[in-house]
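DM between two lab members

TW: hey, do you still have the Integral membrane protein entry open?
JB: yeah, one sec
JB: this one, 722 aa:
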Amino acid sequence: MVPGRTRRAVRVGAFVLAVLAVMTVALTSTVRATVLSTGYYQSVLDEESAYDRLYSEVLVDPAIAPVTRDLLARLPVPEALVTSNIKVVLPPATVRSLTDQQIHALTDYLRGDTEELRLAVDLDPVLGNLAELARIYFGDLVASLQDQEQPDFARFTDDLTAALEALREGRAPTLPALPLTDDQAARATDALLRLVPAGERAELRPEVAVALGRGDVSTALATTAAAALADGSRTAVADLRTTLEGGTWDLTATLTAAGNDLAALEQARERVQRLTQLQILATVLALVSLAALWVTGPGAPARRLMGLGQAIAGGGILAAAAVLLVRPVTGGRFLAVPSSWPPSVTALVEDLQRNAVDQAVATGLTAALTALVGGALLTATGWAFLVRPRTLPTPTAVRGVAAGVTCAALAGALLVPPVLGPSAPRRCQGSTELCDLRYDEVAHLTAHNAMSTTADRFIGPLQDPDITTQLDTGVRALQLDTYHWESPQDIAARLDDPAFTPEQRRLISAAIDRANPPREGLWLCHSVCRAGAIGLVPTLEDIGAWLRANPTEIVTLIIQDDIGAEETEEAFHEAGLDELLHTPAEDPDEPWPTLKEMIDSDRRLVVFAEKADGPAPWYRNFYRYGMETPFAFRSPDEMSCAPHRGGTGKRLFLLNHFVTDGGGSRLDAGRINARDWLLDRARSCEAERGGPVNFVAVDYTTVGDALGAVEELNTGRAREAG
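TW: and the structure you got?
JB:
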């Protein structure tokens, strides 16, 4: 009797140990697939659209205004432009990259791949954008005094550094005097005084008004400098660089100094090390206890199979129960949100925590289900053999089934969570929802005259950031004008273009008189290269570098080609873009590939011309494939959806959405680039023309919320397709 009792005791002990070991294998595998996985954190952020919500909810929350002001180094930027300027200073792509760096640093530390936790952010690109924004903003402040592009803009930007330095030292800077009407002077006075504290405006108004009345911008700015620029961008950037030790922000030191106890992370790291050992031990114990369960089981092989199955299934059930307890025990969160946090931040953090718990529970249930299914399969097989004993295979075959299914169940519980656990969802054109849409079903924010920028000192610029920064801030199609550098004889006719104001014509003519000879090579210009130019090949190289750094993005170029097609082909070859160029179907009516297909093929650069059509197979005439609206609107009220170049019925649809009245109109852009204004026009044109808008071409892409409108169009299309 004693041997029998001992056998039963060993069997019971082996069964309990097997259940606990299987449960431990499933749970430890779940932890490793979540807490130690970079994909888990990236998935949580993407599933909750955290990067988009940062701009659309958090940074527009009035309660967060002090933070946005700090990010802008307290520039006196109008509230309506804060979010757009934040996107210029801190582009979404930069936020994603910086966040991914911290996620990798944290998971590497927890796994023991690095001995020291160092969360450090390289903010040099951000500081560079901040300095550029300061230059752009103050230049535009002067330009806006006449409700037109500042004719002395290039000169102003050349002198801006010295002018701000003079302001900082209390001296009046030397700036061009601008002739203003009485009405313009009054409005300019109001604009300047809005930059200073309300309590100081009444005292400053008379002096500012008199100065602007005689066009003396220098005195007006100097008068308001003490109040408006006491903590201005230049000093702020310098102070920030000093604090950040040359542009690197040590987040670890900052968190420690703020009273955050990082010892918890050290303890977590130690537990993770033990977790690995525990997982190995549990796997060994599971195999040993299941083997003991088999050896001490009943004589009938079928009952032994059922015993193994019940132990494995029991482990899966316990693991599932433990996982399901996570939500009620934690309340769906890992940390308590302080009541002092702004509502937008609280909502985002709560949603992230809820999503993190949901994904962890889903991963754990997957591991538990794997064990449960394996155990159920063994149990059902044993039961089937008992019901139909004649079908029982040989003992060797039974042992083989038992060993195979047991190992598969354990391996599944161990390996399924890392393989099927959370990972960053696939992104196409910046979204997880657009991958299955065709290229001709997607809307792309398009920069009209993308090369004509404030950053590159064009006279009469139509964009602010340079082309790379435009791409960083969400632009996905660029309208570019290619030229040879003109001879003086070529300029007279070009200056008749309505894009130039009389003052701009005077400045350009003066530049010619100062003997500015033609330059060799190919250029991106806006009608006249002496009004601003950047090299074609270097710009294409920058676009190629951006595409390679952003492998899930697609960029379209629509070229107003004033140079030959063969020269254009050679420029793209010289820039090293051959392997990125997409070749459209010869038949313009053929459906385009999906974004996923274009990304998988790595043919992510689409190039159209306004005149040429080949000979390179990738260089197609836009108006064979696309149609457009008119573009010579002198006011928002003139805008229509009428057919223009390209006729009607084409697969691609270009919405020209800008005002040209003696040059680009920044003031009108602020109105028509508003999300609702643009959405209303886009939807109206789609209904009238019978097809989706694909290219939304705007001036000043960082003014208003054109990107938000484009994203809303795409979200609606993805939902309809789904």
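TW: got it. The chain has three domains: 2-45+285-420, 129-237, 439-721. The longest strand covers residues 477-484.
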